[in-house]
């Protein structure tokens, strides 16, 4: 196999992306320039337990269903943090309390996909395509969203952070995916002058991959430039190391978005939420996952600075977990969940949604929270009120979405 054919085979393996070294990928397609309104989506893969994230501690059935893993009342050791007298926040998310108190954080409970699947793969696919029940949708809703916005797209306008290009970013519009922000902003092999020049010559005017290669190289240079901190920024850090994991990614993502106005939308995926065994209550497995998540969201909000006023952050998961704990101290695959919405102009400090309680008769199939708010209606409201999409554009991004939206206004 010739070298050019081998490289082209690598590109075709992903279908819509062309590899540019080990740290950056660029999607094929056209581009448009960004606007100042930003959107960050955090996907919790594995189905986080929304009933312990935003716990209905005021419901007498809560501890009946969860005698071993249910959170204690506010004020108790490792108890929930009071939100509104009925719902309580998991204590591992204490770092988010200031945002709640500033009314910049809200939750939508009993939300999710109307499709009843309990398959992680299918449910994530439906949530990323925003077409529940349809497996043949060719693109992701964030890709369709960026394609509807005005202007000329640059490759870095739509950014993903994770090991592979996620389903939600797939489509015709240009996108960039980094394995993670920390490694993705390091120099790669194509930054070596001799090797970079050889690849530039190889793909120059290539009829099929030339545009994708050129877009990807430009996007990589944009990200590298945006990641470079000024001496003033380094001084402000006072030599403090960035936290590990998601807080580190969040801090660097904020730096990218501050330094490069071309980056408008970002997607981050985090795993480890499938807590079938030993989930824990105020401490334990789930708490150990939630703490860095909350810290990372707080870091992102803080590091964005004034840009946070023009940013909406949505946290979602493919489905919730069973209302009853199981025999191994965990929870199984459920249905309804809680979505999180953060931002400088979010109507926060409230738990929204059509909450129907935890009585047995109110549970979906006698075991789960029902979905009373379609996740697409939450996303559509963000797209309409924050990104100013009209009805026609909303129909393109969220096809076959129910016409009736929620009565509450998140933004």
Automatic annotation (TrEMBL):
InterPro entries: DUF1501. It holds the Pfam family DUF1501. Keywords: Signal. Residues 1-26 form the signal peptide. It comes from the Bacteria. This is DUF1501 domain-containing protein. It comes from Massilia aerilata.
């Amino acid at each position: 196999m010739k070298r050019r054919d081998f490289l082209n085979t690598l590109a075709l393996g992903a279908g819509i992306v062309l590899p540019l070294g080990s740290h950056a990928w660029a999607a094929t397609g056209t581009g448009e320039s960004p606007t100042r309104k930003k959107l960050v989506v955090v996907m919790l893969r594995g189905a986080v337990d929304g009933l312990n994230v935003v716990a209905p501690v005021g419901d007498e059935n809560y501890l009946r269903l969860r005698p071993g893993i249910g959170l204690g009342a506010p004020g108790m050791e490792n108890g929930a943090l009071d939100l509104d007298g009925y719902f309580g926040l998991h204590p591992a998310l204490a770092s988010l309390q200031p945002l709640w108190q500033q009314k910049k954080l809200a939750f939508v409970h009993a939300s999710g996909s109307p499709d009843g699947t309990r398959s992680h793969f299918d449910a994530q696919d439906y949530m990323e395509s925003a077409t529940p029940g349809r497996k043949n949708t060719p693109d992701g809703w964030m890709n369709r969203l960026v394609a509807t916005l005005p202007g000329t797209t640059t490759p870095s306008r739509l950014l993903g952070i994770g090991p592979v290009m996620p389903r939600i970013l797939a489509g015709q519009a240009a996108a960039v995916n980094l394995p993670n922000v920390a490694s993705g902003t390091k120099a790669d092999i194509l930054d070596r002058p001799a090797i970079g020049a050889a690849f530039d010559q190889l793909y120059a005017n290539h009829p099929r991959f030339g545009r994708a290669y050129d877009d990807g190289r430009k996007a990589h240079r944009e990200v590298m430039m945006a990641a470079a901190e000024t001496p003033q920024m380094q001084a402000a850090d006072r030599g403090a190391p960035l936290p590990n994991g998601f807080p580190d990614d969040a801090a660097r993502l904020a730096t990218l978005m501050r330094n490069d106005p071309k980056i408008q939308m970002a997607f981050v995926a985090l795993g480890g939420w499938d807590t079938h065994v030993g989930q824990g209550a105020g401490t334990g497995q789930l708490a150990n996952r939630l703490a860095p998540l909350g810290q990372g969201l707080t870091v992102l909000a803080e590091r964005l600075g004034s840009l946070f006023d023009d940013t909406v952050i949505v946290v979602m998961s493919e489905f919730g977990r069973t209302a009853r704990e199981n025999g191994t101290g965990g929870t199984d695959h459920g249905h309804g969940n809680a979505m999180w919405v953060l931002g400088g102009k979010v109507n926060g400090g409230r738990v929204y949604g059509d909450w129907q309680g935890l009585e047995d008769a109110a549970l979906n199939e006698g075991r789960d929270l029902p979905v009373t708010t379609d996740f697409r209606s939450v996303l559509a409201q963000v797209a309409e009120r924050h990104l100013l999409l009209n009805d026609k554009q909303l129909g393109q991004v969220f096809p076959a979405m129910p016409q009736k939206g929620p009565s509450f206004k998140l933004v």
